[in-house]
């Protein structure tokens, strides 16, 4: 049972509070910033729209009876998306990487998460773990990592961004290396009205993957607001034909509570921008496979 309250974590505080809009559901705030929605009785329900869009990608790529699905989560927080994966594919084996050791412990002890081997939580820096994993060992990599743009700012409204070393062509190449043929790299990208950061990330993905899809609500894609964009990349078409193909994925996105649309021309969307050249950090301990052992947090993500 989830208990509301304020809890000390490695980077400051985490607060669990009732969701004001939905009975029996809770919100997790990390240092004042809304991080996860926690629905203890309905793990199949995702309150954040970007998670529903990412879920639609996976649901149209992998059949519900897929025997083996190995998922790497770069960014753990409340592990809401990992709980959805376990509900959808009970035989899945997942590794969630979370920088904050205190937050990882809070999630494991308070949120009724699936146990190992269904879900392991590793405390570490996402880029180092990604760089250290063996080739072709995951069907899915899901990146959902944000940190204050100003590491010295503790203000909840301080802009949050994905660290540069996780956004460039080097990170995309490592994700492609870790995935099996046909595996899927899904990214939650934060974007401003000019969408420049999103376009650069898409450009980076196109250097490592043959197939890239981009999706968000129409207002976001028209540059009318700041928000979330989901990008997905693979060596194969993102939506399996036996599951309805791209048309079925597009319909599912349009029918969401916050409708999203697929970008029709991803090459044009990238606009010729060069990907971020920042190299991915290398594994510091020679790790070749994610484990559930905990270590001291690394640099801020």
TrEMBL record:
EC number in record: 2.5.1.16
Transmembrane residue ranges: none
Keywords, comma-separated and alphabetical: Transferase
UniProt keyword annotation of Transferase present: yes
InterPro entries per UniProt: SAM-dependent_MTases_sf
One Gene Ontology MF term: spermidine synthase activity
Region of interest (Disordered), residue spans: 274-301
Feature: compositional bias, Polar residues: 284-301
Protein name from the UniProt record: Spermidine synthase
Organism: Micrococcus endophyticus
Organism taxonomic ancestry: Bacteria, Bacillati, Actinomycetota, Actinomycetes, Micrococcales
């Amino acid at each position: 049972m989830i208990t509301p309250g304020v809890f000390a974590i490695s980077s400051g505080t985490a607060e669990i509070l009732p969701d004001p809009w939905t009975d029996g559901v809770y919100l997790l705030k990390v240092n004042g910033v809304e991080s996860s929605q926690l629905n203890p009785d309905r793990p199949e329900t995702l309150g954040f729209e970007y998670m529903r869009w990412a879920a639609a990608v996976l649901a149209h790529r992998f059949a519900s009876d897929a025997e083996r699905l190995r998922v790497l989560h770069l960014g753990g927080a409340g592990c809401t998306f990992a709980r959805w994966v376990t509900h959808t594919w009970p035989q899945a084996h997942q590794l969630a990487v979370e920088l904050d050791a205190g937050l990882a412990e809070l999630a494991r002890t308070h949120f009724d998460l699936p146990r190992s081997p269904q879900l392991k939580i590793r405390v570490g820096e996402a880029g180092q773990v990604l760089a250290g994993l063996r080739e072709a060992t995951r069907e899915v990599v899901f990146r959902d990592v944000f940190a204050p743009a100003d590491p010295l700012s503790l203000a909840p409204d301080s802009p949050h961004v994905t660290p540069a070393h996780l956004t460039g062509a080097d990170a995309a190449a490592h994700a492609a290396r870790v995935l099996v043929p046909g595996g899927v790299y899904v990214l939650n990208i934060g974007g401003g009205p000019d969408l420049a950061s999103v376009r650069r990330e898409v450009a980076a993905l196109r250097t490592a993957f043959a197939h890239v899809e981009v999706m968000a609500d129409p207002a976001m894609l028209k540059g009318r607001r700041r928000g979330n964009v989901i990008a997905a990349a693979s060596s194969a078409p993102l939506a399996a034909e036996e599951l309805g193909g791209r048309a079925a994925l597009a319909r599912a996105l349009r029918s969401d509570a916050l409708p999203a649309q697929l970008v029709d021309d991803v090459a044009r969307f990238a606009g010729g921008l060069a990907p971020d050249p920042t190299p991915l950090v290398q594994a510091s301990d020679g790790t070749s496979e994610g484990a559930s052992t905990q270590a001291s947090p690394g640099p801020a993500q």
